[in-house]
Amino acid sequence: MSQKESPILPGSVIGVLGSGQLGRMFAIAARQMGYRVHTYSPESDTPTGQVADREIPGDYEDLDKVAEFARGVKVVTFEFENIPAPTARTAAKYAPVRPDGEVLHTTQHRLREKSFLKQAGFPLAAFAPVTSREELLTGISRIGLPAVLKTAAFGYDGKGQSTIANIEQGLNAIAKSPQTPRVLEAFVDFEREISVVAARGMNGEFAHWGAIENQHKNHVLDLSIAPANVPATIAKEAVEIARGIMESLKVVGVLCVEFFLTRGGKLLVNELAPRPHNSGHWTIDAAASSQFDQQLRAVCGLPLADTRQFCPAAMTNLLGDLWTNGEPNWPAALALPGVKLHLYGKIEPRPGRKMGHLTALADTTEEAARIALAAREALRKNA
Ligand code: AMP
Questions:
Q1: What is the reported pLDDT for 4?
Q2: Does residue 208 contact residue 7 with C-beta atoms inside 8 Å?
Q3: Considering the entire predicted model, what is its pTM?
Q4: Which residue out of 149, 156, 193, 219 has the highest number of ligand 1 atoms within 8 Å of its CB and is therefore the one to mutate?
Q5: Three-state SS for 266?
Q6: Distance between CA 140 and CA 267 in Å, rounded?
Q7: pLDDT for 193-229, tens place per residue?
Q8: Which of 59, 122, 188, 300 has the highest local Cβ count within 10 Å?
Q9: Cβ atoms 95, 66 nearer than 8 A
Q10: Domains, the chain
Q11: In this model, does residue 1 exceed pLDDT 50?
């Protein structure tokens, strides 16, 4: 992409592949700045579709339809990274895809992602490819136990993941489909997990919101706290790694790097997401620009925005489980100071499904985390 390319200005149509909550929050940011949004996915009445100008239902494999969609927009971005490569390639014939298909290709497969990181010299836990029982045994003898076995493709939020303590558990975990590509990863006894969400513009401009601390429950993000309670040197190092990764991949858009911080104070990259990330949702409420504002500016070739954080913030996810006993008690949560509610317009509250999130703003991160969790707890109270 040439640096001289003129920016895509307000009033233009932006295409979003995928139609979940990330697309919804992107579409809200885009419409706020006067853009129009078309979203493409196999579903209808989606979180993104509900706020977009047009919702185009179609399969990602229906390349004629994908081409028609791309012909109708000025730029294509995506909100989930499991878009098939031919879909991105087809769209790219008619409109720029940002970040490009190469970034998608690298990051949608754990083995490709880890191999890229290793080759480029970024720190990460030891890993080995597993596509057979033999490779599993070789991997275990090289990496040791406990270890984590993950499917290489289409895995997120802990799906397709198991921690194995002995060889038998490993063999059981792959018994049903030993050939399915997997990655065996050293188990990291981390002190905490952090992430850096950052944006890179078409001219290489870089912006970030510092280090964010993340706590997971059942492998799903539960609580994010910003800024992370880590030494400034660690936060700086994490940001520099994120910058380096975005440079190497030539990302135009937003990317999140998730890290383990080991007990020895070492940062290891866990995984990359080439899009806004759950751990960056607090930026909507507590920063001068959100990760979605930046995605918009980056993919449109506009200058990136000020990322300064106005106050400490904490974000907690609202999963479908909260609906088990009926509608959550919204007034009880909203009665707490500094609480902002975001719901994604999903009709069916299945257990484990991300239905929304709460952000709490406070004077300290401890207070923000306490309020965010108290607000979520209040949702369970009978009205
Ligand atoms: P992932 O889908 O790879 O981001 O994994 C989801 C969560 O599982 C991570 O955020 C960690 O809490 C945990 N996890 C994943 N890989 C490892 C590992 N190698 N060692 C320890 N915990 C892990």
A1: 64
A2: no
A3: 0.96
A4: 219
A5: coil
A6: 23
A7: 999 999 999 999 999 999 999 999 988 999 999 999 9
A8: 300
A9: no
A10: 13-97 (3.40.50.20), 126-186 (3.30.1490.20), 190-378 (3.30.470.20)
A11: no
